[in-house]
User: Fold these one by one.
Assistant:
Number 1:
Amino acid sequence: MITTSISVRILGMAGDDELNQKLRRLIETVDAGTLLTEPLTRSIRDLLSVSAAAVGAREASVLVRDGAEGDLRFLVATGEVAEQLLQLRIPAGKVIAGFVMSSGQPMAVSDVGEESSFYSEVDKKTGYSTEMILATPLRHNGEMIGVLEYINRPGEPPHQPFTPDEMDQAGLFAEAIASLVNAYESAKL
């Protein structure tokens, strides 16, 4: 593992046995956490891809709480700007996902340009053009743990809005994804 090779170099430089032991324990903990979370992240990403195709969306993502303020961060994303999304933090009060997280209600927006709660900074930072969103809550044991978002339709516009049946499908996928997200968060702890 990368962390282990770094640890060998760090431990080789340090002369203090107590420091060496502390560093080794810390690195082993990080390695164990990575071993536990990587398969879960992969499973979430795979399920996102399958669910996006079933719902008729081009991209999909999972957002979770980031800190006590209620802000959100992308845990997993699919699509052309997925890696960029993973670096972003989103203010909860300014976004569609924040509304879904706080209300526990799904939301479908067929034209984000007409929605005041659309947070365009994500598009500005990634260069992506969000046209439509279907967002549904992720709950585990009755607790809100995140938001599942589907973005845009494949193909050339104009696109049909997300339908009530697709919202129901998204809700079914949200149940499975919420279980994986909860397992990820538990493993990370």
Number 2:
Amino acid sequence: SCVGMEIFNEKDTAARADRIVWDNVLMYIVPRGKVAWGFSSDDSHTIDKIGVTAEIMLMPELSQEALRTAMENGTFFACSRIARNEMGEDFEGTGEYAKIERITVDEEQDIITVTANNYETIEWISDGEVIATGNTFNLRENSENLGSYVRFQIKNKGGIVMSQPFVCDDGNMEAKLIEEP
């Protein structure tokens, strides 16, 4: 009954390991047919914590129904101006986040391509490790390091934008089962 989990919270202090936990949860549940989406929240109890994180929701219209659908289907990005593990201890983003224009999944060639603007680097993560960089990810070329999912994170001077995981089911998910963490 879990839709997802918070992976960014306010200024990324007490919650800085949440992305590590998220990757560990994904490693355990994806081979079992489940996915947990990654959410971001300012948790704004004070003014200085407003605007530190954001979610970019992909919706055909501005309505509660469209929002709920995006949240349930994982059609959104989790963003943060502060990501201590990924961007460095003292980094605090300024300016706009990277803008994702298109994501293309070519199932015939096993390639995922991200078209984005205003970015410095795109990293591809599987099982909590960066396994490739660049706007194109070839699942076949990275199969040795590929777990049951892959996700990307885009970095720029504004901060970090994280995708939801892409399930990588080659018909052998049983081989990717791990013990409960």
